[in-house]
Protein backbone atom coordinates (compact mmCIF):
# COMPACT_ATOMS: atom_id res chain seq x y z
CA UNK A 1 0.00 0.00 0.00
CA UNK A 2 1.20 3.55 -0.78
CA UNK A 3 2.27 5.98 1.92
CA UNK A 4 0.78 9.46 2.36
CA UNK A 5 2.64 12.08 0.28
CA UNK A 6 1.85 14.94 2.64
CA UNK A 7 5.18 16.75 2.58
CA UNK A 8 5.70 16.87 -1.19
CA UNK A 9 2.02 17.67 -1.84
CA UNK A 10 2.08 20.62 0.57
CA UNK A 11 5.18 22.04 -1.09
CA UNK A 12 3.53 21.69 -4.51
CA UNK A 13 0.09 23.09 -3.73
CA UNK A 14 0.32 25.63 -0.92
CA UNK A 15 1.94 29.09 -0.88
CA UNK A 16 4.45 29.11 1.99
CA UNK A 17 3.65 32.58 3.36
CA UNK A 18 -0.13 32.45 3.71
CA UNK A 19 -1.80 32.36 7.12
CA UNK A 20 -3.55 28.95 6.66
CA UNK A 21 -0.14 27.41 5.95
CA UNK A 22 1.68 29.23 8.74
CA UNK A 23 -0.92 27.98 11.23
CA UNK A 24 -0.29 24.36 10.19
CA UNK A 25 3.36 24.43 9.18
CA UNK A 26 4.41 21.68 11.61
CA UNK A 27 1.76 19.27 10.33
CA UNK A 28 2.54 20.03 6.68
CA UNK A 29 6.29 19.51 7.00
CA UNK A 30 6.22 16.09 8.66
CA UNK A 31 6.92 12.98 6.65
CA UNK A 32 3.62 11.16 7.17
CA UNK A 33 3.95 7.40 7.57
CA UNK A 34 0.22 6.60 7.36
CA UNK A 35 -1.23 4.59 4.50
CA UNK A 36 -2.63 6.58 1.62
CA UNK A 37 -6.38 6.26 1.26
CA UNK A 38 -7.17 8.96 -1.33
CA UNK A 39 -5.82 10.21 -4.61
CA UNK A 40 -5.99 14.01 -4.83
CA UNK A 41 -5.32 16.14 -7.92
CA UNK A 42 -3.69 19.37 -6.78
CA UNK A 43 -2.78 22.44 -8.79
CA UNK A 44 0.63 23.93 -8.03
CA UNK A 45 1.37 27.40 -6.73
CA UNK A 46 2.07 28.94 -10.15
CA UNK A 47 2.22 32.72 -10.44
CA UNK A 48 0.01 34.91 -8.28
CA UNK A 49 -3.17 34.02 -6.47
CA UNK A 50 -4.76 32.71 -9.67
CA UNK A 51 -1.99 30.08 -9.91
CA UNK A 52 -1.21 31.11 -13.49
CA UNK A 53 0.88 28.49 -15.27
CA UNK A 54 0.57 26.00 -12.42
CA UNK A 55 0.83 22.31 -13.23
CA UNK A 56 -1.48 19.70 -11.76
CA UNK A 57 -0.13 16.60 -10.05
CA UNK A 58 -1.79 13.65 -8.35
CA UNK A 59 -0.84 12.84 -4.75
CA UNK A 60 -1.79 10.00 -2.44
CA UNK A 61 -2.98 11.25 0.95
CA UNK A 62 -4.11 9.61 4.18
CA UNK A 63 -7.56 10.41 5.59
CA UNK A 64 -6.28 13.04 8.04
CA UNK A 65 -4.23 14.93 5.48
CA UNK A 66 -6.99 14.74 2.87
CA UNK A 67 -9.32 16.50 5.31
CA UNK A 68 -6.64 19.01 6.29
CA UNK A 69 -5.92 19.83 2.65
CA UNK A 70 -9.60 20.44 1.95
CA UNK A 71 -9.79 22.81 4.95
CA UNK A 72 -6.64 24.69 3.92
CA UNK A 73 -7.91 24.95 0.33
CA UNK A 74 -11.18 26.46 1.58
CA UNK A 75 -9.28 29.01 3.68
CA UNK A 76 -7.00 29.91 0.77
CA UNK A 77 -10.04 30.50 -1.47
CA UNK A 78 -11.36 32.87 1.22
CA UNK A 79 -8.02 34.73 0.90
CA UNK A 80 -8.67 35.10 -2.88
CA UNK A 81 -6.48 32.19 -4.03
CA UNK A 82 -7.65 29.93 -6.84
CA UNK A 83 -8.43 26.45 -5.46
CA UNK A 84 -5.64 23.90 -5.46
CA UNK A 85 -8.00 20.92 -5.83
CA UNK A 86 -8.93 20.22 -9.45
CA UNK A 87 -11.53 17.61 -8.51
CA UNK A 88 -12.82 15.60 -5.61
CA UNK A 89 -10.39 13.19 -3.91
CA UNK A 90 -10.86 9.62 -5.10
CA UNK A 91 -10.69 6.69 -2.67
CA UNK A 92 -7.85 4.28 -3.51
Structure overview:
The protein is of the alpha+beta class. Helix content is 36%, strand content 15%. The chain has four helices and three strands; from the N terminus they run αααββαβ. It has helices spanning 6-13, 19-22, 25-29, 63-78, and strands spanning 38-43, 56-61, 90-91. Strands 2-1-3 form a three-stranded antiparallel beta sheet. It starts with 5 loop residues before the first helix and ends with a strand. The mean pLDDT is 95.
Helix content: 25-40%
Strand content: 15-25%
Q: Helix-strand pattern, N to C?
A: HHHEEHE
Number of helical runs?
A: 4
Weakly predicted, low-confidence segments: none
Distance between the termini: 10 Å
The gyration radius over C-alpha positions equals 12 Å
Structural class, judged by helices and strands? alpha+beta
- The shape is globular
Task: Give the neighbour order of strands across the main sheet.
Answer: 2-1-3
Report the major sheet.
3 strands, antiparallel
Mean pLDDT: 95
Number of strands: 3
Task: Describe the SSE topology.
Blueprint: H1 6-13, H2 19-22, H3 25-29, E1 38-43, E2 56-61, H4 63-78, E3 90-91
Salient structural properties:
globular; alpha+beta; 92 residues; three-stranded antiparallel beta sheet; 15% strand; 4 helices
Give a summary of the structure in a few sentences.
By secondary structure, the protein is of the alpha+beta class. The chain has four helices and three strands.
Amino acid sequence: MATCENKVAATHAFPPNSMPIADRRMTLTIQCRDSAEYSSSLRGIGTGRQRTGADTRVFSLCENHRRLYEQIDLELVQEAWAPSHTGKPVPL
